[in-house]
Amino acid sequence: MAKKEETISMIDTLAEFKELKNIDKDTMISVLEDSFRNVIAKMFGTDENYDVIINPEKGDFEIWRNRTVVADDELEDPNLQLTLTEARKIDADCEVGEEVTDEVHFADFGRRAILNLRQTLASKILELQKDSLYAKYKDKIGTIVAADVYQVWKKEILLLDDEGNELLLPKSEQIPSDFYRKGETVRAVVQKVDNYNNNPKIILSRTDKMFLQRLFELEVPEINDGLILIKAIARIPGERAKVAVESYDDRIDPVGACVGMKGSRIHGIVRELRNENIDVINYTSNASLFIQRALSPAKISSIRVNEEEHKAEVYLRPEEVSLAIGKGGLNIKLACMLTEYTIDVFRDVEGADEEDIYLDEFTDEIDSWVIDALKNIGCYTAKSVLALSREELIERADLEETTVDEVLAILSAEFEDESQE
Fold first, then answer.
1. Please, which pLDDT band fits residue 4 given cuts at 50, 70 and 90?
2. Cα separation of 91 and 94, whole Å?
3. 26 and 113, same structural domain?
4. Is 289 in the same domain as 190?
């Protein structure tokens, strides 16, 4: 009796598992039946002559075995056959050739069978748990989740969600200034779910553009309601971002709605992103105007756009060039990412349009690394270099005095030769 109670308690165990892991009743019954049949088949070679009946309401089960009645001296397979003498103990009126059904108590199969059943059950339950986890997070890709830090490693952080599922936040997907301790709550977007060998691996990200977009959706009701649409995002995590927005309602100012009264809406996003500087601009399908807005706060004098090659030449007054390029080149880099155009910045030197010469024309006389250093400070043409003082070139381009003197001599000589001609 004790053995049978031990077997029946397995259903209670499964019921507890169902509560914890959200496995539905039909799946639970199927798992239990398959597990019983698996063990029976291992013991007797087949489970075809067994009926397994699960009663989820009462929490019990029954196993019935169907065997054919044979003469007492013709018994060959006791699992499929039953002697007439034994059969009449079950059904006094049965005859040879008929089928007799009797109940089997699983506990009578012995301790090994019970352990085998538990092992099979555990294996199937683990598979179900993995399938359920994979399906759950596959549907959550691109959405924000919150989880608690469980362990911090050098290359990644292990997080646990509210159901105890393991999530990973790699170092490469963390904002550079992110720092977490065990027990802290982390918000991130589900980036991808790998399922190698039925072993789900959930990867989160805080550097993905989708994380920034979802934060805007949470903070700005008009975006969530579909009145404002985020058309493009460019991001250098932890440093700076540009977001292009468009309104479907002429009465709504998309930039103002995203920023909020005195910056109330965008401040929450900035804090979450470790003080990442966010520029919100109005989107337009006019490529020239979009590029100008993307380069803000710099003011452009003129622009030439090649839509086929997705390239743009932008001309600015000398004092605007540093604004367009930004600290460490961030502004122009983000503008290129946002517009998907290659943007070249030029100084708007008076009378330079036709007479000016690109620095690339001087590769025979000036080293390419020197030309690159000059381009990095916004000088792409000869006259844009000559417009700067010797001291400014030395300081901003970080070049040696002799190098700057050589460059100025080469460039000046070019224009002197032209004037003589």
1. very low
2. 6
3. yes
4. no
DSSP bridge pairs for 52: 63
Residue 222 included in any domain:
no
Which residues are 241's β-sheet partners?
235, 278
- Bridge partners (DSSP) of residue 242 are 234, 279
Residues 2-21 have a mean pLDDT of 50
pLDDT in tens, 208-221: 999 999 999 999 99
Calculate helix-pair angle for 318-325, 330-339, nearest 10 degrees: 70
- Closest to 170 measured CA to CA, from 186, 184, 161: 186
Whether residue 113 is found in the same domain as residue 17: yes
In a domain, 361, yes or no: yes
Residues 413, 411: Cα–Cα separation, whole Å = 5
Same domain as 113, residue 16: yes
Nearest-angstrom CA–CA distance, 189 and 167: 11
**From the centroid of its chain, how far is CA 223?**
21
Last residue of a domain, one of 322, 345, 368: 345
pLDDT, one tens digit per residue, over 220-266 is 999 999 999 999 999 999 999 999 999 988 899 999 999 999 899 99
Rounded to whole angstroms, the Cα distance separating 82 from 94 reads 11
- Domain containing 316 equals 227-256+271-345
Q: Are residues 384 and 337 in the same domain?
A: no
Phi/psi of residue 75, nearest 5 degrees: -70, 125
Given the structure tokens 């990644």, which residue do they identify? 156
